[in-house]
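User: I'm putting together notes for a lab meeting next week and I want to include a structural view of one of the chains we've been expressing. I don't have a solved structure, so I'd like a prediction I can at least talk through. The sequence is below, exactly as it appears in our construct file.
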Amino acid sequence: MPFALLNDRALISVSGPDAEHFLQNILTTDLDALGVGEANPGALLSPQGKILFDFLISRASENAFRLECRADISDDFVRRLTLYKLRAKVEIAKSEQAFVTVAWGKESIASQTDSTVVADRRFRDESVTRSYAGAGSSENSDTAAWQALRVAQGIAESGVDYALGDAFPHDVLLDEMGGVGFKKGCYVGQEVVSRMQHRGTARRRVLIVRSERPLPPAGAELTVGGRPVGTLGSNAGTTGLAIARIDRVKAALDLGQPILAGDQPVTLTIPVWAKFSFPQETVGAEEA
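Assistant: Thanks for the context. Below is the predicted structure for the 288-residue chain, given as structure tokens.
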């Protein structure tokens, strides 16, 4: 069973009698739909609906939740959660020793009795688990294979794929992978996200990029006729991710115009599990 040790992750515990109510009222994730042994994606948004922090959330025990996030944003995340705490009966703490191991393949099934092993529900076509049990051995850890799997599945993460404070949940497909609860009550930024959902106005989406040659590094522009249509993120050789304007991409496809990453032609496709599609009428798409 392939696995990778992730040294750039942190764990934050939110526990106490008010923990679920507290988190349900501020995060995008619907905790009513979060089962034992599952890790669902989510975000804490600005009032304008932009992602300030992204994470995976799971149930650690009764009245206790585990939020896994990037290590470099964890202290700021704790401070932001603490600001919202007010009189809620919760304890917010960052683990001093965070060990995250991700495994995939047929044998990577989350245990129903071990709360430190959870299924990563972002993945629809692959069984992926995350373990928080301990450091383990780094021998045979394959972070390159993990990167390739994440890219092939169209799973974007902040930092390399998008900047925090610059993306809406729809941009990074949180709406498609169970990271946004559209039927639950209010949360920070909910009005903007709900309006985007009901009006169908999301135009920036994660797409999979493929090329015959190794792709440029993250941050390179995707262009059509010199006009930007998106930005490259993670890549694994000739396959990568990009957040792109799907109306402009569809217009280029309709007109037979090449899409370039740097100076090399690429193809852009929607992740196979995603439900969104390219817009039908795009020729002459307006500027953002």
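A couple of points you could mention at the meeting. The longest strand covers residues 51-61. The helical segments are 19-24, 74-85, 143-153, 190-199, 246-255.

User: Perfect, that's what I needed.
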